[in-house]
Amino acid sequence: MFEMDTIRLGIAADHAGFEYKEAIARLLKKNGYDIKDFGTYTPESVDYPDYVHPLCNEIDAGKLDRGILLCGTGNGVAMAANKHPSVKAAVCWDNDIAVLARRHNDANVICLPARFVSLELAIEMVQLFLNTEFEGGRHKRRVDKIPLGQ
Ligand code: RB5
Question: Taking a C-beta distance cutoff of 8 angstroms, is the pair 135, 103 a contact?
Fold first, then answer.
């Protein structure tokens, strides 16, 4: 299902996303992806920013290309991720939103609501996120206007 790729990926989750993270990371590794797991590594309760910021720091530093983040709703990880200047994090809950997050928003981080989508759907959204290109054009003009203070 996934193609072997050279993209440098990171994945992170809190306790609510832990099980999906394990399954998605396992599948991506099996399919040849270079994926760095930032934790959490157990189902014990944790605070999602502690896992989001280390991954997003590596995107800011140019060490990672894309990120996959999971928490219960997807919103907490997205809020933390979007504090990073190089991150465009999109909460996705169906396949069309995942495709448009790439085509129209050039999202480099997908945020998944593990308590509100099936694992099967989460995997499909990751696949679409990894395999859909940014359309550019008018969407680039809009995306370029997102950063503040430039
Ligand atoms: C954890 O219970 C939950 O609050 C967290 O996973 C996330 O949904 C926050 O946005």
Answer: yes
